[in-house]
Amino acid sequence: ILQRPTSPAAMRSSPPNASRFGDPQLTDGVYLTLSAIMALVTAPSLVLNATVVIVTLRHKKLRQPLNIALVNMAVADLGAALTGGVLGVVYNAWPGHPPLGRTACVVEGFAVSVFGITSLCTVALIAMERMFVVCKPLGQFNFQMKHAAVGVALSWLWSLGWNLPPLFGWGRYELEGVGTSCAPDWHSRDPSTVSYILCYLCLCFAMPFALILASYGKLLWTLHQVSRKVCLEGGASARAEAKVARMVVLMVVCFLTGWLPYAGMAMVVVYSPDVHISPLVATLPVYLAKSSTLFNPLVYIFLNKQFRQYAVPFLLCGRQPWVEEEDVSETQTMVE
């Protein structure tokens, strides 16, 4: 059983690498604080992502090809919040902190990783969809439901394909941070596990980020060229370009805030296995990564006019606190 050691004797009887996951000097107050922080992220995440799924099922107008990836992201984030966030809240707050058994560790690590990487890949899929629709690199490409379905299926298959190997011996799932959650083992010096982690980081973190930068970079360049061509400086086209640029910067910053600390910590541990990182410090990037389940629906969905006009009244029992503004351009509507 993998568990957080609570005494020197327990630490000596734990597996050789278990001491890095628990800190007997951490008080119950620290764990309760971590539980409260996780609750502040998990509760609104569950509400917002569930709202996206419910309003999509209730309103046919939202079931459009360009919205399928947004709904898929909400489903993945909802799964991550249920399997990782709720467990983190309960386990940190549970008196005495019962041990997280090996089976529970593997199941939790696998589930959270599958949902998390699916959500991350869907963010890249959304960027590519917007680029194809606005920039038309393939000419008059008509984005249909079948294209959206293929993209969603690929995001799940890609995530499953890179999270299944630890179940069959290439890599493994182990406790991380203060020992209240599990993830792919970044600390192992075994060559097989290190090779898995390097592939995982490159193909599940670096590649989606590269796709996001390339897609949004192309989109911004196209909008800038259109704005110059129509010579509407200060007009509708320029305002649309500025708004899209702000949204792109916000999306990239949120992506980096959620995932860069986690991926960076993993790379540091892989390349310097002897580095000492406090369990509490190591937990912070984990919580930042899990916070993406909250800001994803805020950035990608509740800033989307079409979703917002249905989601806000649903959350406020039919009340709409503000009047939606008209879109300043067709391009802006497509990007949103």
TrEMBL record:
Any one GO cellular component localisation term in the record: membrane
Protein's membrane topology: Multi-pass membrane protein
Domain G-protein coupled receptors family 1 profile: 48-300
UniProt cross-references to Gene3D superfamilies, sorted A to Z: Rhodopsin 7-helix transmembrane proteins
Single GO molecular function: G protein-coupled receptor activity
Subcellular location(s) per record: Membrane
Protein name: Parapinopsin b
Organism: Gadus morhua
